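Homework help board

Subject: predicted structure for assignment chain

Our instructor gave us this sequence and asked us to write out the predicted structure in token form, then describe one feature. I got the tokens but I'm not sure how to describe them. Can anyone check?
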Amino acid sequence: MVKRALITGITGQDGAYLAKFLLEKGYEVFGTYRRLSTPNFWRLEYLGIFDKVNLIPVELSDTGSIVEALKISEPDEVYHLAAQSFVEASFESPVATGDITGLATTRILEAIRQVCLDVKFYNAATSEMFGATGFLNGGKPLSENDVFRPMSPYAAAKLYGYWITKIYREGYKIFAVNGILFNHESPLRGLEFVTRKIANEVAKIKLGLSNELRLGNLNAKRDWGYAPEYVESMWLMLQRDEPDDYVIATGEAHSVKEFAESAFEIVGLNWEDHVRVDKRFIRPLDVPHLVGDYSKAERVLGWKPRTKFNKLVEIMVREEVGRWSRWLKGERFPWDAPNYPSENRILTRALRM
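My token output:
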């Protein structure tokens, strides 16, 4: 019997990679998206899976639309990835972030409790919940047993989602897990994230399209992994007999400065000639150091990272160089191609189900 999965936030980096992974496993994949005036399905097109997934418009602030998505998809597994996931933006819109990133998790769990209690539920937690702990403990790798000290509205909202997931697991016996994923990157990352911003600008500088890269805190250290490998861990968590929470990481911390230095080195340039610190990109509070201990995931799930830091940077930079090189030759990026799928095409497919 074919398994069915519902992915909230299927248009994001993780949602697109997870959809591809599940399709390759033989799943029928459904995904929720937020209806916008400008469609945002380029990642699904980029991976060649747009026509292979079933798309459902959902507003995470509307419980009714969540219930409808569950009824349409009849899932065996729900992967809740949708959120306002940009830390800097959470300081600008803290209330909206609390609603969409935090309370929406409760809406989904409550809908599951009422509509499909037997479904397995994955909640995308985050290493940002640890906040100051990574600095206060001397930079030791953080595990599932470490204390959370969030330092942004985004992290606080995610911490709410983490605890409500545990509450529904223990209170209603829902198979619900938290994946505490540390930073994971790819060429499908949004341009607002520092890794993609660096890779994109480095490529433009290399090709003569730009000359300067403006960054904020160069000293912030993160545990950066490769997104396609991290989505596999989500699936592995839902294949266990009992639900639990897992840290997913690489066990290595590298600074923003190191990422920039490595990126410029790949294209044969000196980062100091092009990088400028811009105070506009410095957050009111910034987590100084995060590195994860994935030993539990390795022991229980059999998961471990395969792509190391320098290889990750190389993958991202070379992809951007390729994109901009094709653009210079007159080719369009997938997100502005003339045959880009329209909102009407999406809506028509959703209404057919």
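Reply (TA_rk): Your tokens look well-formed. For the description, you could write something like this. Residues 4-352 form a domain with the Rossmann fold fold (CATH 3.40.50.720). That's the kind of observation they're looking for.
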